[in-house]
Each structure stands twice: as structure tokens, then as C-alpha cells.
Amino acid sequence: MIAEIIGIIEKYGLGNCVRWILENNSSQVLPYHGWAHSLWVAYYAEQIFQYEGLGKDTPKELILAALFHDVFHSGGFFTDDVKNIERAVAGFVRWAETDTSIDEASKASVIELIRDSKYPFTKPAKTTEQQILRESDMLQNCNDTLLANFVGIKQELFRYDPYTEYAKKSLEFLRSIKYETKYGKEVGQKKLETAINHLERFNRLVFADS
Question: How far apart are the C-alpha atoms of 137 and 48, rounded to whole Å?
């Protein structure tokens, strides 16, 4: 994944963008919605777009939305995710003011994508790019960072719940994920089933007697 992320930064000329996030994003070290999450979502956005055969280059706006969709996340301070999304939009706008290569139409497209990434999803995605960003955001929960994610999300969003209750909620969340893209159905679904099996086993071993 490291080589692929560096390749994405190079392919789409995102050095300035990544530097700005590193230097300004206050949520960089959050247990879940931090730096690693931004990179994973950008990685999956590229993977899904290419897997779908939609073009040689993934729209730069989609990659930017993936990188910025959770910047300045409150880490659980705001329970209404609309506030987190608007903080992300504000962060993107601040960065875009430093890059004259981003035109107004592209800015508007990125902002729309970021706003559509608000979870839970209450309306169907209107565009393929929106669906890709949504699924990219979910897919980190199905890779080898599963147990780190388990703790990270707990510390941010369920900090007052006992682990025994949170263990059930985490499984409920994974079981609620639905994929619509070809990548999601053919690759993501297998990852999801594996993640559910792993987490069920982990919960049995750790929380069965609670």
C-alpha cells in the first residue's frame, strides 16, 4: 500500500496537498479518523476507479475528496457528523486557496463529494464518484488494520460504552455495509466477510464470558 500511495501522490501531483494536510490537520493523530485513514481512503478510491475500468486516470477531484473528507475531524467531540463534514470542507477550501491550479468547478465537485460522504448514508449516491468515495471510506474496516480500527473507533466515537457492548455494535456495523460497485461486490464483499469472521472469533475469545 505504501508504494501505491506514493505513486498516487506522484501521478496526480499531490505533494503540495499532502504537505498542507501534514502541516495543518489537527486530527492527524486521531486513533481512527487520522492520517492513515486519509491515505487508505485515497488508496481505495484509486483501486475502485481503476477496477471499474472508468478511465486511465482517476478524477483528481475524487482523490482530493478522499484525502480531505475527514480532515479536522473532532474525534467524537461532535456527535453530529454534519459538523465534522463542514470542518473537512473548510479545510479543503483553505488548502484550495493556496493552489491556483484548482478551478472553481473542481472545488465545487470536491466539496460535493466530501459532503456526500457523511455517514450514515441517508440517500443513494447520485454519481459513480460518490459511490466510490463512500465504499472507499468503508473498506478500511475490512483490511489488516481491523483490530486497530476496532480500538480506534471505540476511543473516538464509543468512548463511554463498555467494550462488551461496543463489540456487538462493531459487528452490527460491519454487517450493515452494502457495496454497489463492481470492486465492492467482487473484492470488497470477500474482505467484508473475512473481517466479520475475524471479529466474531476475536469477540468470542475476548468477550464471551462478559
Answer: 12
